């Protein structure tokens, strides 16, 4: 969403869900990477690929983020 972009989040687009990430507030707890490395993989660019899992799985992993650095929008 444009609100998140204005607040410093970067958008990663998928077919059914978009993921937003703000590096400035990330606590580096790695809940995303541990939760689904197919979607969240810091060794690749882009490091977030929303289409590598179901929207439900992506949402579940994002809800684990303790800092609020990850957000999502279902299309």
TrEMBL record:
Q: Which residues form the Divergent 4Fe-4S mono-cluster domain?
A: 12-74
Entry superkingdom: Bacteria
Q: What is this protein called?
A: Divergent 4Fe-4S mono-cluster domain-containing protein
């Amino acid at each position: 969403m444009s609100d998140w972009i204005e607040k410093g989040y970067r958008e990663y687009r998928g077919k059914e869900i978009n993921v937003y990430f703000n590096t400035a507030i990330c606590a580096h707890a790695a809940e995303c990477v541990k939760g689904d490395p197919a979607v969240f993989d810091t060794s690749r660019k882009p490091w977030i690929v929303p289409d590598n899992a179901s929207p439900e799985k992506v949402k579940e992993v994002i809800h684990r983020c303790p800092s609020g650095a990850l957000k999502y929008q279902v299309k």
